Each structure stands twice: as C-alpha cells, then as structure tokens.
Amino acid sequence: MRTAVVTVVHGRHDHLARQLAGLARQTRPADDHVVVAMGDDGVRAVVGGRARVVDLPAGPRLPLAAARNAGAAAALAAGADHLVFLDVDCIPAPELVARYSAVAQDGVLDSGPVSYLPPADDYDLDGLAALADPHPARPAPRDGEVLPAEDHRLFWSLSFALTAATWTRLGGFCEAYAGYGGEDTDFAETAHAAGVGLRWVGGAAAFHQHHPVSRPPVEHLDDVLVNGRVFADRWGWWPMQGWLEAFAERGLVRRSGEGWVAA
Q: 220: which DSSP letter?
C-alpha cells in the first residue's frame, strides 16, 4: 500500500518544520508528502526537498476544504492508495504512519489520538509524550487498539486517514466552506450518511503544537455564521453550537428562526 501524507498550510512555518522532522523519524516512512500552500509563497523554503508543494490561491477566508481536496488529488495522481491528513500544527509520533497503514481498510475513517503541547519556543521530539495533554472529550485507545466510534460528530481533521477508495466514495470535502469551521463536521456527516464508520486508532498519535487561540473565536465569527448556514442547509442542524452560544452570551449573535445571525 502506498501511503501519502497531506498537509495544508498558511503560515505556521516553524510548526511545519517540526512536522517535517517528525515525519523524517517514522518507523514506516510515508511514500509521499503533499504540502498545499494556501497563498503562502514561503512554504517552499521551509519544505526544501522533503515534500511536494501544491500552490493554491487564497483570499481572506482560507480555502481549507479546497486545499485538502487539492492535496488528495495530487497524492492520488501519484499513485497513493492510502491518505493520511495531518494538520500543520501536528507533530506525528514515530509510529503514526505505520499504525494508520497497518489498520487501513475500505469503508472507514481512522483517527489517531491528538494531544496538546504546552507553550514552548521549541520542542524536543524525544520528549513529546511526557508533555502531552490528551483531549478529554475523545478516546485515547492503547497502542495497537482500534475502537469503533459511536458519534461521528467527534471526528476532527487534525489527524485522520482513509483509503483512496473511501476518499473517492465520499467525494472529498465540500468546497462550499471557506475559512474557520464546519467543513470537517460536514465531511464526517457525509461519511455517516454513506455508512462509512469512524474508528479510533491507538498508537497513531500526534502532538498539537501550541499557538494562541481565542475562546470563543471572535475573530472567526463571520466564518462561523456563514459556514454554519451552509451546514444547516445541507444537513438540517447547526454545528459549532458551543461557539454560537458563547457568542450569544457576549451579545454578538442571536437566534433567528431555527438559525443564527449577527446581533
């Protein structure tokens, strides 16, 4: 099986460099690594010869869905049978590619555990596991254990894998989404509707590098509303309810009928 890693990037060059270092330490190296640069001319200088770069124009709302699709298309055109999507903030544990590859099968989405790292100027790749803070809302199966998921809404796009056949069956990410939020929940809902299961893969660990965030993400309020409406029109319910309710508490949004609008 030929496995390709796909990463989409806009900025975060230090994070990308550490991800590349983590991929260089894999016990089972990826056969291909496609980095999609969303309006970012500096990516090639970071990547050097360690990955292939695909350029994608980007406006104020980053085309995250379109970028993942472009990366997958490039990987499949080069003969990939298996796709691993890794967020630019994630450093893979040495066994990540091997674990994903070992359990790969058609008809499922596989997600490995992602743990959060504390703020730091740099990270010692040998000491990441000791620093990691597992996400409390998602399973963390033991190394070698694979657990079926009961709720597709827990899917996240930070780290996941699927076969080329499953990717083709799902049709990729819906490109009606741009900017922050919604496209990964839509992808999971598409999988659920198609009967494609979700599994948690122990040992396919990734470590999410720290970066500043807003809670709630007020700088992404417009994106949340636009993408939330796209999702609601497609699936009949609004995602990102926690953020919307936090915005409402601050008087930034209000309910309108069955949806949400800016206040």
A: G
Alpha helix segments (H runs only) across 114-182: 128-131, 164-170
Q: Do 111 and 234 belong together in one domain?
A: no
- Quote the domain boundaries for residue 13: 3-208
CATH number at residue 166: 3.90.550.10
Q: Whose CA is closest to 223, among 158, 255, 177, 186?
A: 177
Q: How far is CA 203 from CA 14, 104, 200, in A?
A: 25, 14, 10
pTM above 0.70, yes or no: yes
Residue 32 lies in a domain: yes
Q: Is the dihedral of CA 29, 119, 9, 160 positive or negative?
A: positive
Contacts of 214 by beta carbon, 8 Å cutoff, 6+ apart = none
Convert the pLDDT of each residue in 200-245 to its tens digit.
Answer: 999 999 999 998 877 888 999 999 999 999 999 999 999 999 999 9
Average of per-residue pLDDT across 98-123: 95
Cα separation, 262 vs 91, whole angstroms: 36
